[in-house]
Amino acid sequence: MASSQCTRRLFSISSFKSALRPTTNASPSITPHRRFSPFIRNCVYQLGSVQSLLPLHNTVATCRMVSNLSVDSRNCHDVSQVNAKLAAAEEALSLSVWTTSTTCRVLSLDTLLALLTGVLLEKQVVIVCPNLGVLSAVVLSLIPMIRPFQWQSLLLPVLPAKMIDFLDAPVPYIVGIQHKPDDLYIKTSNLVEVNVMQNQVKMCHLPRLPRQRDLVSQLTPIHARLSSESYIAKKHPIHRCNEIQAEIATQFLNVIWHYLESLCSKLKSHTITSVQSNHDRVSLLLKDTFIDSFPLRDQPFIKLFVDTQIFTVLSDSYLSSFESGKS
């Protein structure tokens, strides 16, 4: 589908904005409060902090920007700052649920979890789809989906055909391409390639996610309601998402977020903190004991995961909170 149509695919963004109205009793010198619909407020309460996604031309920067929201504006002295954060939350929420809903409609749960595994282990991920809207949605859905972790390497929703040689770069990446040349040979042993239209994934050997069976049992009924075979999905084009699908997509994201957060729930138990002569506190994660805390069947994944940048960045932030006594 033509790229000019992609801008119309942000589900219900106009309906979100129509829910915002200034209060009539606001002083001219004060930015008026914005009233959000119950659906937005409920989603913001559920998300707590949301991964902010802006237009595609600024993808890499925006994928690393997180808006930590306080939805109780009475406790904030700067009303305009609250409005800015809520506006960012609106945009992040709409893009997160739209991309997640679209991805679940074109990929089976098994394919999606294999793709998620490759991203978490920082493999070289290539997503192939001729439809620009679907392609960008699948690529961008991976960023909010891996919360609380943040992608630390290259992300290109649509790679121009003339830059196809970029796929030989020796670094982790998530790249979307419309067509794969027949003579293309990617020189890597860490490739995860997803053909969206055929719902197929070709990948290097990857271990199963920890507790994958439990995760699948939780996600299966939610994914089924979003898949292309469901009654709700058949009523709307792939690029369009109604409020029911948005609520289901939020449920899907919440399950994955709680699951990923649980992978780091034991960090403090495997951290030692020493006090230096200048009274500074230094914390160190004991990786070996942390790995051993998982069942044997889950350790192959954890052994690879603890050496990734996305795990290191999050664990370092946790260790800093331990050192400051905030956790």
From TrEMBL:
Domain UDENN: 1-327
InterPro entries with a match to the protein in the record: cDENN_dom (IPR001194), DENN_C (IPR043153), DENN_domain_containing_2 (IPR051942), Tripartite_DENN (IPR037516)
Coiled coil: none
PROSITE patterns, alphabetized: DENN
Pfam family, one: DENN
Official protein name in the record: UDENN domain-containing protein
Organism encoding this protein: Pisum sativum
